[in-house]
Amino acid sequence: MEHILMELPYKLDALAPHISEETLRYHHGKHHAGYVNKLNTLIKDTEYEEMSLEQIIHQSDGAIFNNAAQTFNHDFYWKCLSPTKTEPSELFLKALEEAFGSLKTFQEAFTQAAIGQFGSGWAWLVIDEHEKLFIQATSNAHTPIEHHLTPLLVCDVWEHAYYIDYRNERAKYLDNFWPLVNWEHVSKIFENKEYLKLSTTVPFCNDPDNPICEYLDDMSRQGTTST
Ligand SMILES: [Fe+2]
């Protein structure tokens, strides 16, 4: 099974001025592509060759884990962004307010987690098996799906995500991340979280009548393809 670099769901210049075309060209075309290519090289003729990304993440370590997790994390990141303004659904907004007080206080806490992540990593909004929403920062390639948590939103805080546009000013990048968040996507995952919980053990849902299955299958197809 060869893993394929997912196509961006928007044009390279669509996120400007918040994230420039040059950043997307390097971030997607060089960094993300590099993880996918390296993963394919590393898994060739190994026990991981026929596994889904999620399976590799759960069963590997070292360079194979790093490149598989970075492939998954970037797939997820691109889908969390949108060039058009979106709003959280009523149900998701209510859950955010119950967990964090308000959308604004959630954003402040998430921003602090993203800025406070020492070195390279990711800031996430996740939901656990008890339906508790919380913010998590992970270092390097680490990802909530290692621990069977369901990610809802992510911000890439590796310097390659913002250095071209904002140099070392991660806080400015965060200011420009929020207008791009695809709340419709985040809300859709939240409202279908039962299915996403299964995704860590069942990578393909194959239910054509279910929108979240369609999403998961789509994500799997974009991330992997059989050869
Ligand atoms: Fe990245």
Describe this structure in words.
The strands form two sheets. The chain has a three-stranded antiparallel β-sheet, sandwiched between helices. A two-stranded antiparallel ribbon has the order 1-5. Helix 2 (53-59) crosses helix 3 and helix 4 (90-100) crosses helix 5 (103-116). It has a single domain, classed as Iron/manganese superoxide dismutase, C-terminal domain (minor pseudopilin epsh fold). Helix content is 50%, strand content 11%. The longest helix is centred in the first third of the chain and has 23 residues, at 21-43. It has helices spanning 21-43, 53-59, 62-79, 90-100, 103-116, 163-166, 170-177, 183-191, 193-199, 211-223, and strands at residues 2-3, 121-127, 133-139, 150-156, 224-225. It has 227 residues and is mainly alpha-helical. The N and C termini lie close together (6 Å). The chain binds fe (ii) ion (FE2). Residues 27, 31, 74, 156, 158, 160-161 line the site of fe (ii) ion.
Keywords:
three-stranded antiparallel β-sheet, 227 residues, mainly alpha, two-stranded antiparallel ribbon, minor pseudopilin epsh fold, 5 strands, 10 helices, binds fe (ii) ion
Number of helices: 10
Q: Give the overall pLDDT as a whole number.
A: 90
Strand content: 5-15%
> Total number of β-strand segments?
5
SSE string, helix = H, strand = E?
Answer: EHHHHHEEEHHHHHE
- Distance from N terminus to C terminus (CA atoms, Å) equals 6 Å
Domains (count): 1
Superfamily at the CATH H level?
Iron/manganese superoxide dismutase, C-terminal domain
Biggest beta sheet attributes: 3 strands, antiparallel
Q: Structural class of the secondary elements? A: mainly alpha
User: Could you tell me the radius of gyration in angstroms?
Assistant: 17 Å
Q: What share of the residues lie within helices?
A: 40-55%
Q: What strand line-up does the widest sheet have?
A: 3-2-4
CATH fold name, please? minor pseudopilin epsh fold
- The coarse silhouette is globular
> Which CATH architecture is right?
3-Layer(bab) Sandwich
Give the uncertain stretches in residue-range form.
199-206, 223-227
- Provide the CATH top-level class: Alpha Beta
Bound molecules: fe (ii) ion
